[in-house]
Amino acid sequence: MGITRVLSAALLAVGLAAGPAVADDASPSPSASDDSGAPTQAGTSFRTATEVDQGRQATASGSTGDYLYWSFAADAGQRPDVKATVKLPDSHAAQTWQIDVYDGLRRRQSCQYGAQTRTAAPGTASVELACVMRTVRAWSEPWANDPLPGTYYIRLTVVNLTSADLGQPVSAEIRVDSKDIGGSAAVDGSLAKPLVPGIAVSSASDSASGEDGSSSTKSAVLSSIEPDDGWSSGWWTDRWVWTGIGGVLAALAGIGGYALTRGTGRPTRVPPGA
User: Fold this and answer.
1) ∠ CA(8), CA(259), CA(1), 5° rounding?
2) Do strands 78-87 and 169-180 pair parallel, antiparallel, or not at all (unpaired)?
3) pTM for this one?
4) What is the distance between the alpha carbons of residues 24 and 17, in angstroms, rounded to a whole number?
5) I need a labelling partner for 103 at 20 to 30 A (CA). Which of 13, 52, 171, 212 fits?
6) 208-259 pLDDT, tens per residue?
7) What interhelical angle do 2-25 and 238-261 show, nearest 10?
């Protein structure tokens, strides 16, 4: 009976511990139709990249040959999935479009899978591109090129086209979603600060400089984009649950082994003083 009570208490504790993890995994993602307030233009360089939140679809209009830039935030444990759709003019020759993703240090990130480069045949109405990145790590060696928490840049451009198609109007749609990988991607370490570089400069006092003509000091403005619940918010992973389960099973194994090996006590045929 004692072992049964211990087993029941242990299973109840494991169930209570696993509850938060199940609730986190079941949280709904942003609705695909909730794109109110999404940006309708793109930047033309890293410094002017348009910020877009994950789960929202951004649109932009441009000309064939332009470089279009967006930026988004990705935290540790996320595996971003970047998708782009380019709507082409009615009449055009063969065009090759490409989507690239760079981290906060402007290092080009490789894609696990997805059609990162595609060629649109003459007369094709649109071309779709995709790049599923590697899982963002909380920490990495300085020499490694692993994705780290911070800002990521998307660059969309055409890499092969005829001179006759140069400057024709096109429109693009960009959407970034992430899958939470969980404890399997957790590492023993974290960055002191996310890789969020300055994207612009602002003057300390524009009005003062306008009155006396003196030049005002300039200071870097950090990107305002970040995850909804803050950086490195995913400290809770299912690794905690499995660690707790392992500890409970180890304790039960010890109790069971002791119960099997302790015996029934002193035999009745052996005198007390023996």
Assistant:
1) 40
2) antiparallel
3) 0.70
4) 12
5) 171
6) 444 444 444 555 555 667 777 677 755 566 667 777 888 899 999 998 888 8
7) 170
